[in-house]
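Subject: UBN2_3 domain-containing protein

B.,
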Amino acid sequence: PTFPSSSSLSHAHHFLFIYLNDKNYLLWRTQLVPFLRGQKLLGFVDGSNPCPPLTILVDDHTNPEPNPAATLWQDQDQLLFSLLISSLIEFIIPTVVRLPTFHEVWR
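Prediction pasted inline below.
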């Protein structure tokens, strides 16, 4: 899959004006979903764009090599993860601190 450049996400947190707290989920979601849809990243939200296999076989070698598509996916996921964490009010962050992916935090 083709992902937006990392530069299109690296400053996205500057556009977030509503931070998620225990009373404003719909407003917060309304702010983030159009941005993610416009960046063609909703698959990270709903899980329809899972991480590709971490390794691949090249030229039928028996030793798998790192999959560049998985590396790209992980990089994109972590940028989105950072964006999501930056949109949370402080007292919510401890509830998601151990979750490894954007999709798990969103859920």
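The radius of gyration is 16 Å.

T.
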